[in-house]
Specification:
Layout (H helix, E strand, L loop, with lengths): L18 E3 L4 E2 L5 E8 L6 E5 L2 E3 L10 H5 L3 H20 L5 H12 L5 E6 L5 H9 L12 E7 L2 H13 L4 E5 L12 E7 L8 H11 E12 L5 H11 L8 H7 L3 E9 L2 E8 L1
Parallel strand pairs: 5-8, 6-7, 6-9, 7-8, 9-10
Antiparallel strand pairs: 1-3, 2-3, 3-4, 4-5, 10-12, 11-12
Helix pairs in contact: 2-5, 3-4
Amino acid sequence: MYPEALAALRCPHPPHTALELAAGARYAPDGAVLDGRLRAVDKAARHYPIRDGIVDLLGGARLPLTPAQITNYLPLTAWGYERLWRGHALTLLSGEEFGHARELPLLCRLMQPERGGVYLDVACSNGLYARALAAATHADLLAATPPPATIIGIDHSLPMLRQARAYALQHRLRITYVRASAQALPIAGAAVAGLAMGGSLNEIGDRRAFFAEARRVLEPHGRMVLMHLVQAGDSIGQAVQAVLGTGGIDFPPLATIHAELGQFKPLDETQHGVVVFSAWQPA
């Protein structure tokens, strides 16, 4: 955890109490808090651990885990996600050449991270979008001055977060990683300039609860950028999606997503086969 992220972090549940760093924390040479505790500044004085640079605001909370979500708790999945799958995923799913060289500039065009502020990569997995946003804002962990943007990656899987932090350090990017739920974001209200979710929208479960949380934490002119999959238009594709659906991956019609986003107004949207990119702003 980097100290500049603390101003945006809150307890994950109402009334979203502010957090402070308890005494005795251990720091890395780049200024990251490697080990320590965050303490709620209320009468309950709840404590949340920081281990290996990752803040755990979820603890032992029970999640409604599906088979797809449980798979993300496996260290082997976390190791292989980007190495073996993610770079080819959109090309296979869209039927177009759609590698990172096309995807990540599109993310940054929709998000406009040069505006500065706090940016979230929610359900971040290995932190691909967090790294793209950090690189776009020059969030170099060895920079002499703090970057203009604070990048925070959020996921419920510790193995994914550990791999995400390892990648960030490898690329010398200053990103704070937090274990929390997409439906209970540990972030202050109206504190976020931009929020991204790449692909995980299809497996997080309660999308409406996530959209409500996104609306709560975004600034009035903040941006939410989504990359997600929609229902296939052919019978073979729908049959494959039906099988995947038994594992907890949902492929809703695009109209369903639009209806669930009633608290937002659209800024941009493109569709490539079953892959959709869109940008939204609080209504």
